[in-house]
Each structure stands twice: as C-alpha cells, then as structure tokens.
Write a structure and sequence with these properties.
By secondary structure, the chain is an alpha+beta fold. Among the domains are: about 110 residues, no CATH class; about 160 residues, no CATH class. Helix content is about 50%, strand content about 10%. It has 20 helices and 10 strands.
C-alpha cells in the first residue's frame, strides 16, 4: 500500500458520493490489517470467535488455495451498526479504493434487505462484541472444565451449526406445558358406577377425559441447536450456553449465506458505478481499479474460458445490470429489499440473460467426461439454488424423546431432495449422543431407497439397521 494512500480520506469521499447517489447504510469502520490476520478472519468467520480444531483445518485449506492462486481475499465485511470492514494492507491503493466502494454496496444491502433487518431486530447490531464475549466465556469454561469436555460440546454444536429453523425466532420459549384436562364429576348413574368398579376398567370420567398429549417435541423440530440446548436431559448450564452461542452466530450468518448472489452482485454493481462517478480519483487509480473490477466479476478463473461453478459476483452483477436496464433502479431497490437468493434467481434470472451468460446444467461421469444435460431455465434455477436449501445441510428434525430419554431424529429426505453423507452422519450422531447422554437414532433411507436407522450411544459404537 503506497504511503500516499489515505484510507480515511478516500473512504469519506466515496461515502459522500454513495449517499449522493442514494445509498443508505449504517456507518462503516474500515481497518487495514496484515494478510495473515485477514486469512484468520475469513476462516473463523469473525475476528474473535470460540476456539476449535476445525478452524485450524479450514485455515490450512485456505492457505493451500491461496498458494495455488485459487483464492484471494480482498476484504471481509461484517454487517451491523456500525458495520466493520477489514482491508489488506498489501493491496494496492486502487484495489482498496474498489474495496471501499464494494463494502458500501454491502452496507446498503444489509441495512435495507428484510432478511438482514430481521436478524438485526432479533439480535442487535453488535455481532463482533457479542462474539468476543462468547469466546471469553468459552475460555473460562476451558479453564474450569478442561479441554476434553469443552471440545466435546463444541464438536456437537459446530457439527449442528446449519441446523437452525430460520422461520422461528432467535429468542424462543420452551414448549408450553400440556394443559390439564378438567376432571369430570363421577356419574350418579348406578350402572356407570358399577361398570367403573369392574377390574381393569377406567372410571367413566377418566375414559371421557384422556390424558393430554405430552409428546416432546409436539411436532418435528428442525432447530436442533435450540432443541438440544433446552431438552437434553443432563446438560449443564455452560454446555447449553455453548449450543445457544453457536445458534445465535448461525442466525447471524444465515442472511449472508442466503443472499450471497444478490449481495455480492449489488456490491459489485455499486462499486463499478461509484468508481465511474468518482471524478476525484487520479486516472491511474481509476484505471487500475476498473481492471480489478473486471477480474472480480469475470465468470471463469485464470485462463480458462469455461466455468463449471457459478461465480456469485459475476452472476449477481450481471443480473442487477440486466434488471436495472430493463426495469429501472427503483424496481431494483424494491427487489433488494424483499428477496433472498431463492426469490431473486427464480423470479429474475430469465431465459434471455441465461442464454447471454451461457449457463447450463451438467453432469460429471466417473471417466472424467463432462456432459451438458440441460439448459431449461427452471432446471438452471434449481441447480443454482439446490446447494443453498436449508443452509446447505440435510433437513433433519428431532421427532421424539422416548420414555428412556433416548432421542429420535428423522431425515426429511422427501423435503430436501438430497441424500445423506453416511460417514459424516455417523460422526455427527456420535457427537450428539455424547452431549445428549442417552442413545440417539436417525431415521433415513439407505441404498435402494430402503428405510435405514443409524444409532449411537455416544461411545463411538454405531449400529446400522
């Protein structure tokens, strides 16, 4: 970064231009950080977060990808009030100028999109401070209970990180206690009285007033983190706190995940427009920044002229340009407020744009052959959105706590349309059984569509039926 680059001055001038063009965003705190710190933030998801071995593995994978030239982190931005954005010190002045404009597009999106706003209403806008406080609590638990116990709880909670119910509230009450049925007065009819005294017979009042249904859960419960935190028979308070902490962070990350194409596209549209209209930028900075923009929104990587994966920056940017050209900026702002990626792709990726972008559905064969299987617009929609359904995880519900305290889970294979990675499912079931401290079983489908049950007692022994 050249010594002449003034982050504060550049950000202030671009912010003034952004507001002049109609962007509406929470204040943004920009900070320049070293490469290694930026990688840690990207891997952990937050600048300070609960410690766990899985983040170390992700860190190694990220370093490998960066070393191969397949991944470069320009910025990490956290929505909130204020928003926090981290820029890499070693980026050029042009790159960080583009990043500042890009972040303001993110900040506008996160303030105005209904899904982001819902989380802000439920949890407040201070995720960084909240995450740091939770990390401190877990450090205290490590000191008090030891690494082995705390890690077992984190293993289970982080394995269930995607298993929340975004349609429910963040702060939920436990299920209502079953209502007691009013007991009827004994009948004065002599026959009824004699009948109720026969061996093995209920009194008439009991027969007419059956006990209330006390099944837990009363209906399939898809928020597994919440359910286990509230109903695990022998969980201690600090263990429940860890589950609820992971759950709250999952609620925070869900809008970012569910709006990725929209959000990255909106930020890319606005950074391109802000750069074009920022007449205060030196010509060399402008030209270099526009070159970086082209690299960010290209559909393919490196020298390849074909991409087998969707670049969310490219697809989102292309869709917003297409929408604004056809329907105007005000309509685009309405879509920005009301949709997530599911509605955005299904309602606004039309056949004209799909053909222009040369989008297709393909299948890979064991011999390495790649074949295009479909260009139908509806098939394209579902192929793009399938990995996003249910936070990218199989749809699993807690369906019953048995009288012995064992937990029954059920895979909604018809609802999610995807199978299970059995090896991963077995490992996750072991994690759950260790914190549930009773047997845990999962109903799913095996090979050939036959019913299958995976059971674990939390002692690393699995039973397959």
């Amino acid at each position: 970064m050249p010594a002449s680059f003034d982050l504060d001055d550049t950000s202030r001038r671009i912010e003034r231009l952004a507001r002049k063009l109609g962007l509406d965003f929470y204040p943004v705190d920009f900070e320049l950080v070293p490469d290694n710190f930026m990688t840690e933030i990207a891997v952990y998801g937050l600048p300070v977060r609960m410690p766990h071995w899985s983040f170390g593995i992700r860190y190694i994978h990220q370093l490998i990808r960066q070393g191969m030239g397949n991944s470069r982190i320009f910025e990490v931005m956290f929505p909130g009030d204020p928003c926090h954005a981290y820029l890499v010190k070693n980026n050029t002045a042009a790159e960080n100028t583009l990043v500042i404009a890009h972040v303001l597009g993110h900040a506008d999106f996160s303030r105005n999109n209904h899904l982001f706003a819902r989380f802000m209403d439920m949890a407040g806008g201070h995720i960084l401070e909240q995450a740091a406080a939770r990390a401190h609590s877990i450090e205290a638990a490590l000191a008090e209970h030891g690494e082995e116990k705390v890690e077992a709880v984190l293993d289970a909670a982080l394995a269930l990180e995607p298993h929340i119910d975004i349609n429910r509230e963040l702060h939920r009450e436990r299920y209502p206690a079953p209502k007691k049925q009013a007991r009827r007065e004994p009948s004065s009819n002599p026959f009824h009285q004699r009948y109720s005294m026969l061996p093995g017979e209920l009194s008439l009042s009991d027969a007419l007033s059956p006990p209330p249904n006390e099944s837990i859960p009363p209906e399939p419960e898809y928020d597994l983190l919440w359910f286990i935190a509230n109903y695990a028979p022998d969980m201690e308070g600090w263990e429940r706190d860890i589950f609820l902490a992971v759950r709250e962070e999952s609620f925070y990350f869900y809008p970012v995940f569910a709006c990725q194409i929209m959000n990255e596209g909106w930020a890319s549209y606005w950074h391109a427009r802000l750069l074009r209209e920022a007449d205060f930028l030196p010509s060399d900075i402008y030209v270099s920044a526009i070159k970086s923009h082209s690299d960010v929104v290209r559909p393919f990587a490196g020298e390849s002229q074909l991409s087998l994966a969707v670049n969310p920056y490219h697809l989102g940017f292309s869709m917003w340009e297409h929408l604004i050209e056809k329907h105007g900026l005000e309509n685009a702002r309405r879509i920005c407020r009301e949709e997530d990626d599911f509605g955005f792709i299904r309602n606004y990726l039309d056949r004209e744009l799909a053909e222009k972008l040369d989008l297709f559905v393909y299948e890979a064969h064991e011999d390495g052959d790649i074949r295009i299987t479909d260009r139908n617009i509806h098939a394209l929609h579902e192929a793009i959105l399938a990995p996003k359904f249910n936070f990218g995880a199989p749809r699993i519900a807690a369906t019953r706590i048995h009288v012995d305290g064992s937990l029954e889970l059920t895979h909604d294979y018809q609802g999610d349309g995807r199978g299970l990675d059995v090896t991963r499912a077995e490992r996750v079931l072991q994690y759950i059984a260790r914190v549930w401290r009773r047997p845990v079983s999962l109903n799913t489908l095996g090979e050939g569509g036959m019913p299958r049950v995976i059971s674990s007692r939390g002692n690393d022994k699995l039973e397959l039926v």
